[in-house]
Amino acid sequence: MTRSFDGLTYCVHTFGCQMNKHDSERIAGMLDGLGGSMVETIEEADIVIFVTCCVREAADVRLYGQVSSIKNTPLREGSPLKKRILAVGGCIGQRDGEKLTEQMKHLDVVFGTHNIGALPALLAATIEDGNHHIEVLDSATDFPTNLPITREHSWAAWVPITIGCNNFCSYCIVPYVRGREKSRPIEDIVAEVQAYVNAGVKEVTLLGQNVNSYGRDLYGEPRFAQVLDAIDATGVERIRFATSHPKDLTDEVIEKFGTLKSLMPYLHLPVQSGSNRILDAMNRRYTREHYLELIEKVRKVCPDIALSTDVIVGFPGETEEDFQDTKSLIEQVGYNQVFTFIYSKREGTPAAKIDDPTPREVIQRRFDSLVDVVQNNAYTLNQPEVGKTLPVLVEGVSKRDGFILAGKSPKNQTVHAPIPEGISPESLEGTMVNVHITGAKTWYLSGEIVSEL
Ligand code: SAH
Ligand code: SF4
Ligand code: F3S
Q1: Are both 43 and 121 inside the same structural domain?
Q2: Which helix (H) or strand (E) holds 52?
Q3: How does strand 133-135 pair with strand 156-160?
Q4: Residue 268 CA to ligand 3 centre (angstroms)
Q5: Is residue 354 part of a domain?
Q6: Is 244 in the pocket of ligand 3 (CB under 6 A)?
Q7: Which has more pLDDT, 222 or 445?
């Protein structure tokens, strides 16, 4: 049995995707279960845990900066420890393992993506003997979903349905740090969601690097559509999912946007590029034409669906013509949101071996010119919402103004509305309210609460 963490405080700093956010909730669940207390800041924490991302270089660099700055932060008064314990996990932990403690001597624990369950024991060992403790496994033996959980919000839950990725897009590090794709048995997923629904959860987000291929390893064929049916049957109000690979998006799944009331009218469908030549070099295994056909089918089933995507600018060898293909696709589809990334070379991936003569300024100019298109689209697509009354799941107060609440519409738009007089913002968190929309900006809608649901 692992030692108790009674009297010890910890904080978890999470970078990267929703999978990491979910893992961090499991880490918190384990430490809380052993008596630890979560705190927000490094100053208050006896144990600091970084759950890291290495999908692009910027995230790597940030970790090194943060870890080295901690050295100068004194331990809180009254801490039972002699020195603060520092742990790094997540995708950088998985990729770099013990190299991390060679580069950052004051690091105590390194763990990977496949063994977050080992963290309490690793922390306990370092508290006992003062040595480094490093454990990184090659693949997962169990799903992190079998660990205790402390969720960030009582009304929403991340639910992994697969872990890992088999797609090996040529630019991407994820398959190397998250391992091969494994699906959870459908009964486990449903049981978890049902328990959440019974406890008052309103929204679940099904997670996987490619949810569309869910079940291929277990049942010999993808069964994502059946998962959606089963989750709908739990009575949950809102279902979302991320992420969806276009090559595996089936008609059966698309149909669900027309038939399941709980499936929110929002689809994130990463396109990465609008050029067939680049899509091929990226090993995406679909064409621009196929992607546009999918969008057409989705809009036929659910005309008012909100769409978002990911785009990489500056993939090695991208020409001006390739870039214009991407730009025209973005204009043609009309996305509510586009996450644009400048290509970042990741050692160990096939694309890292491709030389690229394109000057950095050219790539930056392409990137900047896309951002304009993205913002114009988002603004234009928000305008027809004015005058409608939308059901909004309240998430809390707006970051900029404590008197304004912020929540999400079915299409995942951020909605702001003044908090009615005499009502505390906390009492509205996690509730559904009807908001009459009176204004629409690029990144949010605003309006007045007309009723609670
Ligand atoms: N499995 C998901 C998410 C992967 S990571 C998916 O396939 O959609 C999220 C996004 O990061 C990707 O969609 C891609 O646009 C971007 N990304 C991944 N590797 C990158 C790299 N080396 N450089 C720049 N962006 C990258
Ligand atoms: Fe990376 Fe491609 Fe897998 Fe997404 S589908 S995680 S981009 S390899
Ligand atoms: Fe980053 Fe790992 Fe997610 S590399 S994007 S945290 S799977």
Answers
A1: yes
A2: strand 47-52
A3: unpaired
A4: 17
A5: no
A6: no
A7: 445
Q: Quick check: is 95 in a domain?
A: yes
User: Ligand 3 in contact with 51 (CB < 6 A)?
Assistant: no
Same domain, 84 and 58: yes
Instruction: Point out the ligand 3 atom lying closest to the alpha carbon of residue 173.
Output: 4
Does 415 contact ligand 3 (Cβ within 6 A)?
no
End of a domain among 212, 247, 264? 264
Question: Which residue, of 264, 298, 324, is where some domain finishes?
Answer: 264
In this structure, the answer to whether residues 163 and 124 fall within a common structural domain is no
CA nearest neighbour of 338 among 300, 360, 369: 369
Q: Are residues 50 and 20 in the same domain?
A: yes
The CATH number for 116's domain is 3.40.50.12160
Q: How do residues 142-198 score in pLDDT, each as one tens digit?
A: 899 999 999 999 999 999 999 999 999 999 999 999 999 999 999 999 999 999 999
- Structural domain harbouring 45: 9-135
Give ligand 2 pocket residues (Cβ under 6 A). 165, 167-169, 172, 174-175, 209-210, 245
Check pLDDT > 90 for residue 248.
yes
What pLDDT, in 10s, does the model give residues 210-245?
999 999 999 999 999 999 999 999 999 999 999 999
Number of structural domains the chain divides into: 3
Q: Is residue 105 part of a domain?
A: yes
Lowest mean pLDDT among 59-68, 186-195, 212-221, 442-451: 59-68
Instruction: Give, using CA atoms, the residue closest to atom 7 of ligand 3.
Output: 174
Give yes or no for a contact between 367 and 343, defined as CB atoms under 8 angstroms apart: no
Residue 356 CA to its chain's centroid (Å): 30
Instruction: Give the model's pLDDT for residue 452.
Output: 67
CA 244 remoteness from chain centre:
12
Residue whose CA lies nearest to ligand 1 atom number 5: 55
Say if residue 13 is in the same domain as residue 131: yes
Average pLDDT of the chain, as a whole number: 96
- Confidence tier at 60 by pLDDT (50, 70, 90): confident
One DSSP character per residue, 268-317 reads E---B-S-HHHHHHTT----HHHHHHHHHHHHHH-TT-EEEEEEEE--TT
- On whether both 129 and 244 belong to a single domain, the answer is no
CATH number of the domain enclosing 392: 2.40.50.140
Calpha distance 319→380 (Å, rounded): 29
Q: Which residue has the tokens 């609440």?
A: 405
Eight-state DSSP code of residue 374:
H
What whole-number percentage of the chain has pLDDT above 70? 99
Closest CA to 161 of 61, 31, 19: 19
Q: Is residue 181 part of a domain?
A: yes
pLDDT tier at 425, thresholds 50, 70, 90: confident
- Whole-number pLDDT of residue 394: 97
